[in-house]
Fold each of these.
Amino acid sequence: MESDSKTISNSSEDILSQFEEQNISMVSLVKTLLSTSTMPHIILITLLSTILYIVAKVDSLTIFSSMVFASLSVSYCVTALLSKNPKISSWITLPDDEQKIDSSKMWNTLSKFRICLFPLSVAGLIFLIISFTTGENGVISDANKSIPLILGMLFVIWSIVQGTSFSMWASSTSAKPSSKSTKSSSIRFSLIVILSTIGLVSIILAAVFYQLENLENKLGDSIVLAIPFCLLAIGLTIGSISYSWKFKKLASMKPNLQKFSSRWTIICHLFITWHLLTIWRQNFLTPSNLQVFFEEITLMIFTVFVAIWSMTSKGYRSKLKLITEENALTWGLGFGYAYAGSVAMLTTFFDDIVTVMSIGHGVVIVTVIFIHRLILSKIIGNDDSSVEVKRIMDNSKKSNHEEESNVEDISNEIPNNKQNDDVNDEVWQEDTDVDWDAEQEQPQIDNIEWDETIDID
C-alpha cells in the first residue's frame, strides 16, 4: 500500500512539473521586452498606434490606417524571422555603449530610433505592394476596402489567442510549489474562498465603473447598482465549476492536485470576471470610444506578454525554434500592431461595436472555461492512467506468482501419481499359480457324453 501511494504521489508531481517547468519566467521575459536596447520599438508602437487610431476616425483615411497597421504587423513578423542573422540583429538592437539614454542631448535620443528603420522600411515596401495589388487599379481591384473589416473581425481570433495564452501562463503559475508547506484545504473550503473572492472583486470593480459613469452618485448607490453584475459573475463561476466538477472532486483527493486546482480555478475565473465586466459595460453602461480604446490597448499589452511567453516556451521545445527569448520582442510587436489595428477598426469602422466587442470577449470567456476543464481532465486522466498501469502490473505479478505456485503443486503431485501407478502394476502382476497342463473339468449335462463323436450326415 505504501508503494502504491508513493507511486501515485510521484505521478502527480511529475504531471504538475510539466506545467511548472515552462523554460522562462515572466519576469525574465518582461526584462527582455523592456530592455533599453530595444526600448525605441516600444515607444514607436505606442506613438504609431495612437496616431493611426486618430487617423482612422477620419472616414476618408480609415482604409489607409488599416493598411498601415497591416503593413507594420507583417513587417515585424518578417523582422523576427530574419533577426537570427547577426547583421540584421545589429540593425534592430542598440549596442551596449548606447543603451544609457542621455536626456540632455536631443539628437542622441532621436538617433536611438535608427533601430526602427529596418522594420519601417520593410513596412513601407509591404504597404506599396498592398496598394498596387489591392488599390483601385490593382490586380485585385478595390480589395483594400475589405482590410478594415478583416482587421476588425480578427479581434475574435486575438480573443482566442488571448484565452489560450493566458491559460498556459496561468497553469504554469498555479503549478509552482508554494514557499510554505501548508496543509491543503478541503474542497468545500476551497469553493467558499473562490466564490468569496469572485464576489468581492466583481462588486468592487463594477462599483468603480458605475461611480465613474456618474460621479454624482453616492458610493452606496454604485455598490447597489453593482450587485446584479456580482450575482452574474458568481453564477457564471458556479456554472464553470459545475462543468469541471468531476475533475475538481478527483483532484481534491490528493493534496498537491488540490492546491493546483484551487489556484488554477481562482486565476482563471478572475480573468473571466474581467471580460464579463467588459461585456456588461458595453451593454449596460456607456463607455466612450477613447475609454474602450485604452482599455483594449491595456488588454493588448497583457495579451502580447502572455502570448510571447507561451510562444517562447513552445519555441524552446520546437526543433525549428522560430520564437526565442531573443526575438520575442519583434514577434510581440507584430502581434501588437495587428491587435491595435483590430481595436482601432472596431471603434471607428464598425457601426455596431457593442456586438463585435461582446462576441470577442465572450469568446475569451468560453475559451478559458473550456481550457480550465481541459487542464484538469488532462492532469487527472494522466494520473489515473499511471495508477491503472500500476494496478495492472501488480495484478500481473500476482497472476504470475499464482501460476508458479500451481506449477509447483503439479510437479509435487506427479511423483505421487507415479508411485500409485507402480503399486497398481505390481498388484495386477500378482497372479496365483496356474497349472495350464491340468485337465479342465467339463460341464455336466444330462445324457451327454463329451467324449462321443457325433457324426452329422
Amino acid sequence: MAPARALPAPLVVHGRRRQLRRRRKYCKLCYLKGSSMVPTIQAQGDVGLLDRRCLAGYDFSRGDVVVFRLSTDHGMKMVQRMIALPGDWIQIPEKRDIRQVPSGHCWVEGDNAGNSWDSRHYGPVRAFSLTIILSRFSSICSVSFLNKNW
C-alpha cells in the first residue's frame, strides 16, 4: 500500500488566502469616526459592518447609511445617510436652490447637519461607489442595525 501524499504547503496557504478573500468580498469591518453622523455614529468612533455585496445590484433606499469615496479625493471615505435617489428633486435651504438628482447618482447628508460636509457641499455622489453599512458596534455587547432592511 502506497503512503498517503500530503498536499504541498503552498496550496493550503493559497486556499486559506482565497477563503479569506471570499469573506472580505461579502462583508468587512471598518472603524467609523467623525461628528457628521452623530448621534447614529459616535464621534469618538464606532466599528461598522459593511455589506460589500451591494456593489452588485443592491436596491438602495432613502435612509440607508452608506460609505463611499469622494470622486475629488479617492483616498477619503465618507459615511452619510442617503436622502434622495436618481430622479428625485431636492431643495438646498442654504442656497434656496431646487435641483434634480441626476441618473446614476444619489444625494447624501449627515445626521448632524450643522457639522457635516456632504452633498450640500460637493453635490450628488455616483451610486456605483456606494457600500451599505449593516450595523454599528459601540462595544462588543452593543450592536445596532442602521438600515431598516436588516
Amino acid sequence: MRKRTRAKLIDAALEIFGERGYHHATIQQIVRRAGTNVAAVNYYFGDKAQFYGEVVSHALTLDQDAEHMDLGDEPPEDQLRTFVFWFVHHVVGIHKPSSSLEKIHVQEMVNPSPILDTLVETFIRPNHMKLRAIVSALLPDDATEQVIRHHCFSVIGQCLHYKFARPVMDRLYDDIEFTEDYVNALAEHITNVSLAGMRTVPGERMMAARIGRARQS
C-alpha cells in the first residue's frame, strides 16, 4: 500500500510539474490528482523542493534514450547527421507524446528552479559534449572556443525552434503536418545548413589576417 501511494504521488507530480512548472505547481494540486493527502507527501518526500528532486530523478531513470544514442566511428559529417536526426525527433516527439522529463525541461528553460543544475549535469551536458566533439572535428584545427560554441548553439537552436515555435508555425502555415517524412526533411535541412556553415569557417590565423587587412583599408 505504501509503495502504491508513493508511486501515485510521483506519477501525479510528474504531470503537474510538467504542466505548471516547479514554481506554479502546488502540493495540493498534486495530492488531489493522486487521490492522497499532504501528509503523505511530507511522509515520503519532505518539503516541496525535496519532492521535486525525487520526481526529476525518477523522470531521468525513465528517459534513458539519450544515453543509447550511438554515434559510432563514422566520419564527423555522418555523426552530426545522426545527432541532429536524434535531437529533432526527440524534441518534436512524433512517435510518442512528450515525456514528463521533456515537459519539465521546457518549464525549467522558461522559469528555472535549483533542479536545473541537476538536469544540466545529468542530461544536457553529456549530449552537448557529444555535439561539441563533432563540431570541433568539423571546424579548422585552430578554431577558437568561441567559434566552436557558436556552432554548437546554432545547431541546438535550429532543432529547438521546432519545439518552441510550433504554435506560431501552425498559424503561419496551416498546411504543415509533422509527419515522419517532414521531420526527417527538417533534420536533413538542419544538418546540411550546419555543415555548409562550418565548411566556410576560416581558421584563426586566416581570420586574423582578414581583420588586419580590413583595418588597413
